[in-house]
Amino acid sequence: MSRCLLPCLLACLISSVWTADQGDGCQGSQAEQFPVVMTPSGPIRGSMMQTRRGRAFEAYRGIRYAEPPVGELRFQPPVPIMSYNEKVNATTEGPACPRPARQGYYLDEDCLRINVYTPSHTSGQRLPVVFYIHAGGFYVFSGRSDVAGPHYLLDRDIVLVTINYRLGSLGFLCTGDEVAPGNNGFKDQVAALRWVRRNIAAFGGDPDLVTITGCSAGSHSVFLHMLSPMSKGLFHRAISMSGSPIGSSLSPHHLKSLAVRQAQLLNCSTTSSTEIIDCLKTKSWRDIGYSLRGFYEFGFDPVRIWRPVVEKDFGQERFLVEQPLDAVRAGRMHPVPYIISQTRDEFFWMAFYPLRNDTLRSKFNNEWETVAPISFVLPRDNVSAQVTRLRQVYLGNRPLANDAESASRLGKLYADAIVGFPVHRLANLMCRHSPYPVYYYEFAYIGNHSHYEDPVTNKPTGAVHHDDLIYLFSLRYRFPDVPATGPDADLVDKMTAIWYTFAKTGDPNAYGGLDLPELSGLHWPAMTPDKRNYLEINKQLTVKTNLKEDRIKLWEELFPIEY
Ligand SMILES: *[C@@H]1O[C@H](CO)[C@@H](O)[C@H](O)[C@H]1NC(C)=O
Ligand SMILES: *[C@@H]1O[C@H](CO)[C@@H](O)[C@H](O)[C@H]1NC(C)=O
Ligand SMILES: *[C@@H]1O[C@H](CO)[C@@H](O)[C@H](O)[C@H]1NC(C)=O
Ligand SMILES: *[C@@H]1O[C@H](CO)[C@@H](O)[C@H](O)[C@H]1NC(C)=O
Ligand SMILES: *[C@@H]1O[C@H](CO)[C@@H](O)[C@H](O)[C@H]1NC(C)=O
């Protein structure tokens, strides 16, 4: 692993105090403290930060990659910025896009921002670029450094890019006609990728060696970029963590009912698409962002609300032009070496809320056919045969009670429905139809922290959705940084080594002369249709086969496709 060179090491050691908001400022002269990079779009001033191992790196945060999507540009595709009128001040954190957040959290509709972290823009090297698309169901989170912190990955020789894209109705409203053809949040991501293609060399990144990676909603996004005519040529490897848009239902052509719901929540007329949009344009971004609660149909379900749409052609630049399943099966994609993953327990914890709530639990018991399609993101029509079978197999046909047995059974159903089955399907499709290797992993490690911690003991009880992020990014909004030594620290070294190796070579194994002791002995074979290998990531890295297939078999029977 390359270390901080002497001058920056000294500079950083002097300033042992950091604060997340001010960006780990290192002492030094003005130029050292606030580096300026000349990009083809203009000059950008950044700041210095420091990794968990004490390496100083440059941070350029909150840079606009598209015009503020406000006023007449609300609900429109992004308008890229090709040149900056004056030196961009990228020394502090930008806002997150509108969404529910605690009081005082920095939100703004002017949120199309990109963050670039580089070991050095002047070294003359062209480093692999890792482009991270954040999680959050297309309605929460951001690319800000409190939720996607660079402090671990920048111990590797990579350039890390994180982004915001518009969320909820502001990003994904789709009436299915010319008024709102949809997918603007994905078009934002494309605009950010185009910005990288144009500007990243100035930061020391290689525009011909870009790895797109994302978790959950970001994982859906990563895969869709392989299909999108808009994203062609903008990336060279891909990593999808815990999310796939190919599951039990096809992608819709519009999200009209969500547009109507949004209008109703803000007292807008719903008689036509034009009225909906015109009225919503007069509302504050805060009211739109904060209306998320109004979209839940059963407790906090469904976890997935806005989705990618297959866009009809109105002459607009289209992000998604056909069913993802059809595209993959016909090989109509721009495939690249691919890592796909899920965690062992995923969304198991979603069982607790409805089980502990008497009203919801009895609804589950008495109105299963109505509720199950909502909670398990199934097609809404004609699935009574399927949900009856799911109840037989997962719940043993027993009524749900507020107890451990029910939580375990219902938890597995949530986990498989929302992530396990769609990810399985995507991995199996890609290993058949992509000419590049597909590497599959299961994240099974349980460390000091987890995105679900037991409310009584405060201890992790599973390897859940987003938990692999704990070992790739500092997540200071919620967890302390992983300490310098110990098992969690070892896993940070392994995970960042895998990401680095894959970004550089397209193979997660450290062959080819990369000196990565963390990965010595790793021989992670690609998955093939006949030998469905995967890597179990736990304290050890272990190659296994047939991930969760005993449970997934049922789903293949209930929702069959031709692979
Ligand atoms: C950059 O922006 C920050 C936050 O608004 C401000 O404190 C700082 O003075 C600005 N720097 C320059 C050089 O304008
Ligand atoms: C919508 O109208 C209702 C009833 O008139 C009112 O209570 C509510 O505050 C309005 N909501 C918004 C967001 O304007
Ligand atoms: C139970 O769920 C219902 C429906 O979401 C909600 O209105 C109610 O407040 C919940 N009860 C408790 C005790 O949380
Ligand atoms: C309902 O689903 C069954 C299979 O589960 C299928 O045979 C039938 O054609 C479907 N009916 C409609 C109206 O889609
Ligand atoms: C958990 O954190 C403590 C204190 O920082 C550390 O000593 C220990 O090694 C960590 N445990 C694991 C599993 O990493």
TrEMBL record:
Top enzyme category: hydrolase
Any matching Pfam family: COesterase
Keyword Disulfide bond recorded: yes
E.C. no: 3.1.1.-
Carboxylesterase type B domain ranges (all copies): 35-555
Leader peptide range in chain numbering: 1-19
InterPro entries according to UniProt: AB_hydrolase_fold (IPR029058), CarbesteraseB (IPR002018), Carboxylesterase_B_AS (IPR019826), Type-B_Carboxylest/Lipase (IPR050309)
GO MF annotation list: carboxylic ester hydrolase activity
Record keywords, A-Z: Disulfide bond, Glycoprotein, Hydrolase, Serine esterase, Signal
Keyword Phosphoprotein: no
PANTHER family: CARBOXYLESTERASE (PTHR11559)
Similarity section: Belongs to the type-B carboxylesterase/lipase family.
Protein's UniProt name: Carboxylic ester hydrolase
The species this protein was found in: Papilio xuthus
